[in-house]
Structure formats: structure tokens, C-alpha cells
Amino acid sequence: MTVKKKWQWGSIALILLLLAAGTYISTSERNGKLTFSEDYKPMRKAKAVDKEELPASWREVSSKEDVESFYKKAVPGYSLAREQEVMTSPNVSARIQNRDGRVQINNVWHTGKRIYLFYSIDLSALIEENENSRMQPIPMLESLVWNETNNNDRKSMHGRIVHQPKGMLFNNRLYTVARVVPAHKPLDEVSQDQWEPFEPFNQTIPTTMNLNIGGKVYSSDSVAVQYQYQPVDHKLKEYEFTGTYETDKIRLKPLSLSLGLDKTTLMVKVEGDSKKSIQAIEGDLLGADGERLPVVPYLKPVPERKNVYEMTIHDSFSKVPDEVELRVARIQFRGDTSYTFNLDLSDYDLEERYIHVNKTVVEVEGTNVKLNKISNDPSNRFGVHLTYEPENHDQDIILSGFPSPSEQKNGYPAETIHITSDNGKSDSSPPSVSWGNHTKLDVKPKLIEDAENIQIKVTDVSYSRKVGQSFYTRDEN
Questions:
Q1: In what order do the strands lie in the sheet with 417-421?
Q2: How much is the pTM?
Q3: Which of 122, 305, 346, 362 has the most crowded Cβ, counting Cβ within 10 A?
Q4: What is the Cα–Cα distance from 32 to 382, expressed in whole angstroms?
Q5: Which of 290, 285, 313 is nearest to 300 (CA)?
Q6: How confident is the prediction along the chain (477 residues), in pLDDT tens digits per residue?
Q7: Please, which residues have CB within 8 angstroms of residue 422's CB and are 6 or more apart in sequence?
Q8: How far is residue 218 from each of residues 130, 133, 221, 389, 417, measured CA to CA in Å?
Q9: Cα(475)–Cα(473) distance, rounded to whole angstroms?
């Protein structure tokens, strides 16, 4: 063989070796699934910097185990997602245009409803070449762009500042995690109702990161990132409950629990006074070692199953428990009670942006309805803020806030606030904001113009009734 041919064969062998190595680094396949890279090995060594010049004081760690601990605290269900091998590990590095450094996308967890992007930035890219670098804004991922060949790029807005608890330093990089919506889907699917399931997805998409560094936005080069979502891989365990709670007012029977990586679904059957609508359950799910998940209160009726409701908790335990305890504290109803109070406008300077009042305006079912404050923002929206304070938090019935606006679509009366002004005008509307023991009522400008007093009547008042009972699941395995 001639020297020239030896050189040609040697070149071909070297190219094949590099391609094989590149494929191994970018995919790390195991059993057909892309797995997490446990070594956090960057594709290149990051430049050392004077950390005194960084715009923030992030905690620095010395091992990949510390980075793991950070991610476990930052993202619920992270450990289980690792075990289920649902993450992809692009481990791709991209140049940040006009900055001295790169950004690396290490791992991606696509849950269907959201995407967790685990990435790191070279510290050298965060250093400003001036004496006041510590005064520069803290960096943030401003948006993520999915590049498409038909020039119809999709963007997911983010805007999360990487302040001290949200990032840590390791090997001259800032490690953090972003949560974005899956905007690589058609926009009408992204905004779909939260109860509708997402379809399986597995696609490699050129991705660009827009990073706000020092108050300016810099784009990364586009790199290929695999996004993979398979619903069956996110399901962990199914449980069935035993036991029933029953009084002359309520009959509650928890049915089942579906534990998932990023979503837990609880099914219950609740029956009560036919004149009242059941709105919510307040309580907790307890797993192993006392781990607790607050039950998201609002109920969604299950079609074609009378008195059966579904609650979706977008959270999970850190490990799969053998048994789950459901502690039900209270059940919330919409009743037929109403209350009325007057607001003397002449008592307040309505030119003030916020007027703190904190006085009881009416007492209903052992609960003080308090006028917390009055707000008057620049858009001419006059707001009345109410809070509910029971005389005894352990009492049987407590007045509570209204359902959220999304829940009002499930049969809640649209007009529960009725306002009459002494200027001869009146109006009816739903509460504008409501959560927990707080409700905000918007009063239209026409009702306070040339008025000294308005009367506010609230109908279909929400209240909660005490339960205080635990239910347990059977381990079917």
C-alpha cells in the first residue's frame, strides 16, 4: 500500500471515529431511550473568572452530586423522572453571540404541559468589562425559540431571573433550570383547556436561547435538541381508597388516585344538599416519610358519572409510596345565602392609590367579612378588597372565597356581585379576583361618579364545612 493510500484510509478511519464519538455524546442511548448524563461533562472546559466580578453571589459547589441535590429541590418529581428515564440529554453547547462564553443544554424533561430545560452558562459570558459589573442586572432566560424550516419560528416567553436560590456555580458555570410551555406545538394546542391530554411527542428541533445578560438580550446559536413526551412513561401507580365520610349533610367517598411524574389525579364522589353545589375539597395527600402534597381544591365534574369529581394536582411525591393517606379538612359549597353592606364613599379620599381600612362590614355564619382595603389604579378601576376571618378556625362552617374565574365556567353563576349607587345607577358582575380567604370586587366608574354611597350585595355565598377525616389506599401489589 502506498503512503498516499495509507493517508487516505487513515483519514477515513479518523472521520468515522469522530462521528461515532459525537453520536455517543449527543444521544447516550439505553434501551431505546435517551438517558441522563450523570457526569455533567461539558463539551469544553469553561474559562476561569474572578467571581467578584459576577453580577450576583451564587452558591458554589464542588461535585455533580451537589448539582443533583439542587435540581431535586428546584423541580418536584425530578428524581422519579430520572428513574423513569423520561429525560433527554442533548448535552449540546452553543455560542452566545457577542459574548465571551457559551450556553449548554444538558437535559430536557417534556411533561406534556411544560418543558423543564436544565442548562448552564459559562461564567465568562456573564462578566461585564467595566468597573460596575456587580451593579449589572442578574441574567435571565428571556425566551426560547424553536426554529422551523418554513420561517414560522415559535417562541416561548420565559422571563425568569436566575437569582441566588435559582442557580448555583460548578466548574466555572452557572447551573439553573427553566420551565417553559411547549410552544413547538401549534399555538391552538398550547392554549388548549388544561384538562385535555397532550399527545405523545418525539422530535428533534433546532433551538435558540435568548438570554438577557447585563440588561441586553443576546441570542445563542441554534442547536438540535430532542423533545420527547410519552404519557405512559409518566404514569407511576394507581391506588384505590377505602372508607366513607357521612353525616346528615354530606357523603364523601374518595375513589382512586393516579400518581404521575408531573401530575396526580384524585377522583372523589361527593353528595350533599341538592340545593347547594359542591365546589372544592381542602386537604392534603401524605406519602412516605410524611411527604405532603396539598390537594388542589377545585373540583371538575366527571362526565356521565353523577356526583363524581376529579382534582388534578400538578405535582408529585419524590418517591412512590406503598400507601397514600388523604386528609380531608373541609369541603367547600356554594350556598343560597347572601349578605349586604354599605360603603360610604365620603369617608375616603378616592384620589389615593391604596386606602387601608381593615374593618368588619358584616358577619355571616360566624365569619367576619372585613373590608381590607380600597384600591384605585391608574386605569380607573376601583377595587373593594374583602377578607374572611372566622371567629374560630375550627368551627363547623366558615365563609370562603369564590371559585377562580376558570372554575366559574363550570356552572357557577356569572353575576354574584350586585352594586347599587345613590347616583341612580346599578351593575351586576362576578368577583374579579378570588383566592383562599380573599376576594376583590371591581366597581365600575359610573357607579362612583357623583356618588356618596354604594350598596354591595353578594349572593350565592361560598362556605366550607368541616370534615377532619383521613382515608387510606390499599396497596394492590
A1: 339-344, 453-458, 417-421, 426-429
A2: 0.71
A3: 122
A4: 59
A5: 313
A6: 554 444 454 554 444 444 444 433 333 333 333 333 444 556 678 899 999 889 888 999 999 999 999 998 888 788 899 989 999 999 999 999 999 999 999 999 998 888 999 999 999 999 876 655 556 788 999 988 888 655 667 777 777 777 778 899 999 999 999 988 876 655 444 444 444 557 788 889 899 999 999 889 999 999 999 999 998 899 999 999 999 998 877 889 999 999 999 788 999 998 876 556 777 888 999 998 888 999 877 788 888 898 898 988 877 888 899 999 999 998 888 777 889 999 999 888 878 888 999 999 999 989 999 999 999 876 657 889 999 999 998 899 888 775 554 444 444 556 788 999 999 999 988 776 666 678 888 888 899 889 999 999 988 888 888 889 999 997 655
A7: 451, 452, 453, 454
A8: 18, 17, 10, 49, 48
A9: 6
What is the β-pairing status of strands 167-170 and 59-60?
parallel
Check: CB of residue 146 under 8 Å from CB of residue 222. Answer: no
320, 237 in Cβ contact below 8 A? yes
Contact of 256 with 308, CB cutoff 8 Å: no
Q: Are 280 and 333 a contacting pair, CB within 8 Å?
A: no
